[in-house]
Amino acid sequence: MPFFLLDTAILLHWTRASRQARLIEEQFQLSRSTLRPLICEVSLGEMLAFSQSLNWGAAKRQRLTDIERRVVVVDISDRRVLEAYAGLSTLARRSGWSLFRGKNDLWVGAAVRATSSHLLTMDRDFTPLRDVDDFAVTILDANTALPLT
Amino acid sequence: MVTGSLSGHPRRRILNLIERSFRVEGTEGLGPLPRAGLIAPLLSNLQESLRDSVRMGFLHSSRARGRVPTALKAAAELRFLGHEGQGDDVTVLHFKVPSFADAAPKLFRQQRLWDDGPKPEETAFELFGAALNAVASCRADSDAFDRDLLRRIGSYRTLLKRGIGQIAMPDALPGRRGQIDAAVVAAADDLIAATPRSRRVRIAGRLDVMAVSQSVIKLEVGPNLFATARWEGEEPIDKFKDFINRDVVIEGLGVFRPSGALLRVDADALAPESPADSFFRTLPTAAAARDYHKLARLKPGEPSVYAQILGSIPAEESDEEFEAALANLR
User: ipTM of the predicted structure?
Assistant: First the structure.
């Protein structure tokens, strides 16, 4: 099984055990994995913002903190990530990809590149990366959780 | 071994030169009539690589700022003898280069700055070969390279993309023969990525060695614990010669190896040690890059993290509220 790096939406679906999470489990059998999920550090901020927007109480925010301790957080200050960010940002700008405008997306992409992991995401802005060497990306439909072709 | 002599200037000392070569192998553009567009950048890159390696060997810094001793420039001075083709896919480039004993005899009369440094009978080729060997073996604690030399090795990627498959050093001294190929370039990239960022450091210790011509000093921080520094301050280094064998403190930019151990300090301040400096009687380290794959692997018998966090946050809001909040994330 590959080293998966989960984008924020996938992790939030997973922690909610949503319908999409169950469909992801059916396809990837993640709960049998002997690997911890990787997440990019920017996802921590996004999950906090998410919890505030839904007015989560202290108990639910504590559970979020517990999850942070169990996954592997890829630091964006890591030199490998910084260099991957520079390369990806330049590529995205020159290619006119919408990914260039989503700076958090660029950080997530850089974390994937730097860790040679496999990105699981529902964000279609990552579509061009499927054709780039050294990137492994699976984009799932936000409703059906099936991989986009 | 072929030797010769060179006297480019009537007053210049005649150097005995030793023959060394690079064997270039590739898929196209080589042989007895190599493409100029392939060979010209290769010659330039090889010359720069040898210069970097000599500076690294003697100064602990491949791109040392400030004055570089003339002897070191002479030690990296390549003279092109010619080339020969072997079949259609091999070109051997022949050079003459001085030994260090010949080009830089004064440097060997000084106290040796480190045990595994350049040897009198060696040439720039041997230092470059040693650096390539260290990179090929991913030696994260090596003295043979710094980040700039790794970048130099990585820059051969362009030539490899143009059809060169391998550059070998067939007549360098045994044990110091390196080669450049895709694996070495990839290893250089990995080592660059793993090298921690340089940061300002302060180190206290006894000033053990001062090599004035190289602007290099060595501090004994503790028993068998030494820090090497390249002096980059505004004052001439010999201003501090009275500090030899005394306890001092230096400050400057700490440059680290991929392992996180200190490689050198580019020092710009040196002063007598004060009682408050005892805290700095240690070699600074930098956090080595995290191995994310290692961190991600569960210990034997450890339960699945995916299984533990699945549904760990109660779904108290409606699906519509959840989806709307997700849509606002980015």
Answer: 0.95
